[in-house]
Amino acid sequence: MKEKILTLGIETSCDETSAAIVVNGREVLSNVIASQIDIHRLYGGVVPEIASQNHIKVIDSVTKQALAEAGTTLNNIDNIAVTYGAGLVGALLVGVTYAKALSQAAKKPLYAVNHIEGHIAANFITDKNLCPPLLCLVVSGGHTSIVNVSGYNAIETLCTTVDDAVGESFDKVARVLGLPYPGGPQIDILAKQGKPSIKLPSVLLKDGNFSYSGLKTAVINYCHTITQNGGEINRADVARSFSEAAIDGLIVRAKQILSKRKQNRLAVAGGVAANSYLREKLNELKKSGYEIFLPSLDLCGDNAAMIASRGYFMFLENMPVAPDDLNAEPSLR
């Protein structure tokens, strides 16, 4: 096998069009991201049709820019990796169709990547020496779970949310508080100014899974009650109280599973990995003797470098390449 394997990653699962070149799953030569945040902020959230249209407009130029920044050409690429789920079906189809065309035209192997497995792989970029086994706390806009990563391509879900995901709940609460899209970072900023003065339900269920619908409803009811009684909502206190309720249950459950499985290593994956309160709680775990692994902030959100990394490890262990009829799977688990 070649000493250096170059993988081109393509990511279009939501509102970020991204292409990246990664060497051996660890070294990022380029990671170009065309964000649509300013467009969707006008609507208070992602509009699927608009997202798809904008992916179509820029995906070719983004890919060419990634190749140029990496100082290489498509001929030198060894593999192509593309997100095929989960995400918005129209957005996914843009990336899948484009990647299939590139793969067939350049005669390069194509690997179909699970978006969340891509988020997990971001840790292998940030920490060049990190290898399985480890546990991973997945906290994204559409997924919330704790998984056992026993190998690069062996991932088992141990517990998960039964309804909303943690990232989704951050966005919904942000809208209730009148904060602009994307809501997660806005909540994070506001929470630093507030106090956890509002009693809210835990997201941790008795069976060990998570539920965010009750927490979200409790925040909505609290705000409605204050407003109906002529009071003024202390948005900072709501943001702080909600943030702690949303994250504390995740930390408690992670510690339970680490202890039960006699594991000491916990990685984190997904957009909410950028949340400062979560990082604060994880730092406390680190001080208690746990090994904690976090993606760098630029790799927490959707990006193609993590997709390329995941694709490389699929190649490394001879996993099947994508079929010619590869399609988008928006509800991929």
What does this structure look like?
The protein is 43% helix and 19% strand. With 333 residues, it is α/β, with parallel strands linked by helices. It has 2 domains: 6-127 and 300-316, 2-Layer Sandwich (Nucleotidyltransferase, domain 5); 134-295, ATPase, nucleotide binding domain (Nucleotidyltransferase, domain 5). Strand 7 (144-151) and strand 8 form a beta hairpin. The longest helix has 26 residues, at 235-260. The chain is globular, with a radius of gyration of 20 Å. It starts with 5 loop residues before the first strand and ends in a 17-residue tail after the last helix.
Q: Main traits of this protein?
A:
five-stranded mixed sheet, 2 domains, 333 residues, globular, Nucleotidyltransferase, domain 5, 10 strands, alpha/beta, 43% helix
Q: What is the highest CATH level, the class of the largest domain? A: Alpha Beta
Structural class: alpha/beta
Succession of helices and strands: EEEHHEHEHEEEHHHHEHEH
Distance between the termini: 32 Å
Number of helices: 10
- Which blocks of ≥5 consecutive residues have pLDDT under 50? none
If classified by CATH, what would the architecture of the largest domain be?
2-Layer Sandwich
Task: Could you tell me the CATH topology label of the largest domain.
Answer: Nucleotidyltransferase, domain 5
Question: What is the CA-atom radius of gyration, in angstroms?
Answer: 20 Å
Query: Tell me about the biggest sheet?
Result: 5 strands, mixed
Proportion in helices: 40-55%
Strand order of the largest sheet: 3-2-1-4-5
Note the beta-strand portion: 15-25%
How many β-strand stretches? 10
Shape, please? globular
CATH superfamily of the largest domain: ATPase, nucleotide binding domain
Q: Mean pLDDT across all residues, rounded?
A: 96
